């Protein structure tokens, strides 16, 4: 940088420091008063404060039905780009309907959840706060009586730095966890300004703050103790000290910036990018812009840079590898490996499509060595063999039960265990990566065909010609061999056609012996269902993961159809309110399904206990079940009808989140098919009336069952309570409707104070349940409509008697 440029830069820096100082008096408007508060509104942005220009807003952004983020965002852009959010130690402070943010009379900015518990705060300390304000710089401030800021969002950044904003030594940016639009929790990448004045990028041992070695550094030569990162809108992001530029992080010069929005963000993929966006209404050189454009970034190649040191899993998750395209890294799985989460390979990585070798039951004959070129996992070797030929390297790994991958190059052989880290594309390393792959997985990926009649006929003619040239014994053996080969081939094709239906879901294929070992010979039974029993197990091969193994019975008659349906359909469903299928076993007469383990058991055991669960917990469970069913009915590529919704088939994870399970009774409908006739399924007390009336079965059978379950959640009692024989309370659905019409809802909840206090929601839940249990299917709302009514997004009409018939609700 020449002397003229340096002088100009210095003047700009001084100017912007002056602007920051002046902003406290010029821009601080009392648009958030002491004692005021804001609660989120469903399905819309809830703005508490706008900057004077209207460029920035502060308030609640809806993430998904019933969940909200307290944030600052660009108010004039359709994308609602968030530049700051209220974060706890490792997660965004996401709150539910009924929460609020308030500026107390003492000047404390406090976020309270719907139970009144404080989940985040901005404390001004001993300063006397006069008001809060949203400035045109994008800075949210608590102004004090001394014309200073008692607290400001610029001092507490999340993943973004804005023009005129600074990061002081010890400060940091944390990337978002993933690219999902509604995920604002902290990820595993950080940008930090160290005490020695160097700016670094590093990964962390997520979810802790344990920092791995840096993968990018500013390399300041002067060890100065008062450095700052400053975003100059004319020159980019710089490391400065005493108004002197020390290092250019990003160096893009946009020219005139009057018509531009700018931000610099540590993105979820670990790359720090400077962006621009033409302000709405501007049209420069005949062009317009409706998205953010990345103008500069560091590092230049995160795939390579992150493998130079100990970076945990690397730029991508374990067992995956990184490929760079411009500034954008992509995370890929090797052949015969599958993403743990297809939408989050960068964090979750990949797993093999087969059970990892176990030294106790290991047989080298069950595996083959498969080569892959132009990739590398440079870290994590546990043994090096040299000198060694390629075949010897393959054999050494194949015969070693601990070895999952071998790398061969220049007469060296390196052995690796799972998981592999820091994988990347490397076109020039000259090495061969050799994977140990289960023969079952290899065979499953091959496309076996019988061939046409002409080919078969030709094969037989050639075989017979060979036979005629030998002795009678040889001819006999040859003919027998040809016949056996054809029979084996046909059998193998039939097996592979069946397997191919299940492998499409990219699930783990377990052996029966492995699942028998995982469950300690099916020792601990968790429960029984329509098609078999469920046992608790632990999969050592997946890292001591607890699982629930469903052992299917009676498959020889009609179970195969249900088994294939579960594998191909459930394997493709991914929702926070569904139990995830991990894998399967299809070995001879043994057919088993492996699910993630739910630590808090069934909804039945949770609801029907001596101590009644808290009202708010029950409310969230009801929302969860409704969301899960809405996903099955309306958001899957092919609609899924569960057909057996009941508390025993709703499980609770460690956070008491409702997860719908047991799709053994699910009925798959094609996209253009909305009805089906089938035999009666389901459980007494939850079965819709149309099952018994020879009427077409639609998704409304699940709506009916949900209505019964919703009443059980509200009332904490079973639908049919034998203790109330010869009592009007015997059948919950009838009793609930009578109490609803009499306006005696407090009786239904047994005088639960929390539920009674939340009277409007209690009344809404009971009304929705009554709509769901209408005997006429057309009168029941869809699950999508049910969810909207539960959340208060749409009005709930007064429901009729369930046994009556009037015009339907859509």
From TrEMBL:
<keyword id="KW-0245">EGF-like domain</keyword>
<dbReference type="GO" id="GO:0005524">
    <property type="term" value="F:ATP binding"/>
</dbReference>
<keyword id="KW-1133">Transmembrane helix</keyword>
<dbReference type="InterPro" id="IPR000719">
    <property type="entry name" value="Prot_kinase_dom"/>
</dbReference>
<keyword id="KW-0732">Signal</keyword>
<feature type="signal peptide">
    <location>
        <begin position="1"/>
        <end position="25"/>
    </location>
</feature>
<keyword id="KW-0675">Receptor</keyword>
<keyword id="KW-0808">Transferase</keyword>
<dbReference type="InterPro" id="IPR008271">
    <property type="entry name" value="Ser/Thr_kinase_AS"/>
</dbReference>
<comment type="similarity">
    <text>Belongs to the protein kinase superfamily. Ser/Thr protein kinase family.</text>
</comment>
<keyword id="KW-0472">Membrane</keyword>
<keyword id="KW-0430">Lectin</keyword>
<feature type="binding site">
    <location>
        <position position="551"/>
    </location>
    <ligand>
        <name>ATP</name>
    </ligand>
</feature>
<dbReference type="InterPro" id="IPR051343">
    <property type="entry name" value="G-type_lectin_kinases/EP1-like"/>
</dbReference>
<dbReference type="GO" id="GO:0016020">
    <property type="term" value="C:membrane"/>
</dbReference>
<dbReference type="InterPro" id="IPR011009">
    <property type="entry name" value="Kinase-like_dom_sf"/>
</dbReference>
<keyword id="KW-0723">Serine/threonine-protein kinase</keyword>
<dbReference type="GO" id="GO:0004674">
    <property type="term" value="F:protein serine/threonine kinase activity"/>
</dbReference>
<keyword id="KW-0812">Transmembrane</keyword>
<feature type="domain" description="Protein kinase">
    <location>
        <begin position="520"/>
        <end position="806"/>
    </location>
</feature>
<keyword id="KW-1015">Disulfide bond</keyword>
<keyword id="KW-0325">Glycoprotein</keyword>
<keyword id="KW-0547">Nucleotide-binding</keyword>
<feature type="transmembrane region" description="Helical">
    <location>
        <begin position="460"/>
        <end position="488"/>
    </location>
</feature>
<feature type="domain" description="Bulb-type lectin">
    <location>
        <begin position="35"/>
        <end position="155"/>
    </location>
</feature>
<dbReference type="InterPro" id="IPR001480">
    <property type="entry name" value="Bulb-type_lectin_dom"/>
</dbReference>
<dbReference type="GO" id="GO:0106310">
    <property type="term" value="F:protein serine kinase activity"/>
</dbReference>
<protein>
    <recommendedName>
        <fullName>Receptor-like serine/threonine-protein kinase</fullName>
        <ecNumber>2.7.11.1</ecNumber>
    </recommendedName>
</protein>
<dbReference type="Pfam" id="PF01453">
    <property type="entry name" value="B_lectin"/>
</dbReference>
<keyword id="KW-0418">Kinase</keyword>
<dbReference type="GO" id="GO:0051707">
    <property type="term" value="P:response to other organism"/>
</dbReference>
<dbReference type="InterPro" id="IPR024171">
    <property type="entry name" value="SRK-like_kinase"/>
</dbReference>
<dbReference type="GO" id="GO:0030246">
    <property type="term" value="F:carbohydrate binding"/>
</dbReference>
<dbReference type="InterPro" id="IPR017441">
    <property type="entry name" value="Protein_kinase_ATP_BS"/>
</dbReference>
<dbReference type="InterPro" id="IPR036426">
    <property type="entry name" value="Bulb-type_lectin_dom_sf"/>
</dbReference>
<keyword id="KW-0067">ATP-binding</keyword>
<dbReference type="Pfam" id="PF00069">
    <property type="entry name" value="Pkinase"/>
</dbReference>
């Amino acid at each position: 940088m020449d002397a003229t440029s340096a002088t100009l830069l210095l003047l700009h820096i001084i100017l912007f420091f002056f602007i920051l100082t002046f902003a406290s008096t010029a821009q601080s408007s009392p648009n958030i008063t002491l004692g005021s508060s804001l609660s989120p509104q469903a399905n819309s942005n809830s703005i508490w404060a706008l900057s004077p220009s209207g460029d920035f807003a502060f308030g609640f952004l809806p993430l998904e039905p019933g969940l909200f983020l307290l944030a600052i965002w660009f108010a004039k852009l359709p994308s609602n780009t968030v530049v700051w959010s209220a974060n706890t130690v490792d997660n965004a402070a996401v709150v539910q309907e009924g929460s609020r943010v308030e500026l107390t009379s003492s000047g404390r900015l406090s976020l309270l959840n719907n139970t009144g518990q404080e989940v985040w705060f901005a404390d001004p300390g001993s300063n006397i706060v006069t008001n809060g304000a949203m400035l045109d710089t994008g800075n949210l401030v608590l102004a004090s009586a001394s014309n200073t800021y008692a607290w400001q969002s610029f001092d507490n950044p999340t993943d973004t730095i804005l023009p005129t904003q600074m990061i002081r030594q010890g400060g940091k940016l944390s990337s978002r966890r993933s690219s999902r639009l509604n995920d604002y929790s902290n990820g595993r990448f950080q940008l930090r300004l160290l005490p020695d004045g160097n700016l670094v990028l590093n990964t962390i041992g997520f979810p802790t703050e344990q920092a791995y070695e840096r993968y990018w550094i500013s390399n300041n030569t002067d060890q100065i103790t008062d450095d700052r990162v400053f975003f100059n809108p004319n020159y980019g992001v710089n490391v400065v000290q005493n108004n002197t530029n020390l290092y250019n992080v990003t160096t893009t010069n946009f020219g005139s910036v009057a018509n531009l929005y700018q931000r610099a963000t540590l993105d979820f993929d670990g790359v720090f990018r400077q962006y621009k966006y033409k302000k709405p209404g501007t049209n420069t050189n005949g062009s317009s812009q409706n998205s953010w454009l990345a103008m500069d970034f560091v590092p230049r190649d995160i795939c390579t840079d992150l493998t130079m040191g100990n970076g945990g899993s690397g730029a991508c998750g374990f067992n995956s590898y990184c490929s760079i395209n411009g500034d954008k890294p992509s995370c890929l799985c090797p052949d015969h490996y599958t993403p743990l989460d297809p939408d989050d390979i960068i964090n979750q990585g990949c797993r093999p499509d087969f059970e990892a070798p176990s030294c106790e039951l290991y047989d080298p004959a069950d595996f083959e060595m498969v080569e892959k070129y132009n990739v590398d996992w440079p870290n994590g070797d546990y043994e090096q063999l040299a000198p060694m030929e390629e075949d010897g390297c393959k054999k050494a790994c194949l015969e070693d039960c601990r070895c999952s991958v071998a790398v061969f190059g220049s007469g060296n052989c390196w052995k690796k265990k799972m998981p592999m880290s820091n994988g990347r594309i490397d076109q020039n390393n000259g090495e061969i990566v050799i994977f140990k792959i289960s023969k079952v997985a290899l065979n499953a990926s091959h496309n076996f065909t019988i061939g046409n009649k002409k080919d078969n006929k030709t094969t037989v003619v050639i075989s017979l010609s060979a036979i005629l040239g030998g002795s009678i014994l040889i001819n006999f053996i040859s003919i027998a061999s040809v016949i056996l080969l054809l029979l084996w081939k046909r059998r193998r094709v039939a097996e592979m056609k069946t397997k191919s239906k299940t492998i499409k879901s990219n699930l783990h294929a377990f052996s029966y012996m492995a699942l028998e070992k995982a469950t300690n010979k099916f020792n601990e039974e968790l429960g029984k269902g329509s098609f078999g029993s469920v046992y608790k197990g632990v999969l050592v091969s997946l890292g001591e993961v607890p699982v629930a193994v469903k052992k299917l019975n009676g498959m020889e008659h009609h179970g195969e159809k249900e088994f294939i349906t579960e594998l191909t359909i459930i394997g493709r469903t991914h929702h926070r309110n569904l139990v995830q299928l991990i894998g399967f076993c299809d070995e001879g007469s043994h057919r088993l399904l492996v699910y993630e383990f739910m630590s808090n058991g069934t909804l039945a055991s949770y609801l029907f206990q001596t101590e009644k669960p808290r009202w708010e917990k029950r409310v969230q469970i009801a929302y969860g079940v409704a969301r899960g069913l809405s996903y099955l009915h309306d958001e899957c590529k092919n609609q899924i009808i569960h057909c057996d919704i009941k508390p025993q088939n709703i499980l609770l994870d460690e956070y008491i989140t409702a997860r719908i399970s047991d799709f053994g009774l699910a009925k798959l409908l094609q996209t253009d098919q909305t009805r089906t006739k089938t035999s009666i399924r389901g459980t007494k007390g939850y079965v819709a009336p149309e099952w018994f009336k020879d009427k077409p079965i639609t998704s409304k059978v699940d709506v009916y069952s949900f209505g019964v379950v919703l009443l059980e959640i509200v009332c904490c009692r079973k639908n049919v309570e034998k203790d109330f024989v010869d009592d009007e309370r015997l059948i919950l659905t009838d009793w609930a409707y009578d109490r609803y019409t009499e306006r005696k809802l407090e009786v239904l909840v047994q005088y639960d104070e929390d539920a009674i206090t939340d009277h409007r929601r209690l009344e809404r839940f009971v009304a929705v349940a009554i709509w769901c249990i209408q005997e006429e299917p057309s009168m029941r709302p869809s699950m999508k409509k049910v969810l909207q009514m539960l959340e208060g997004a749409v009005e709930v009409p007064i429901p009729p008697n369930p046994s009556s018939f009037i015009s339907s609700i859509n």
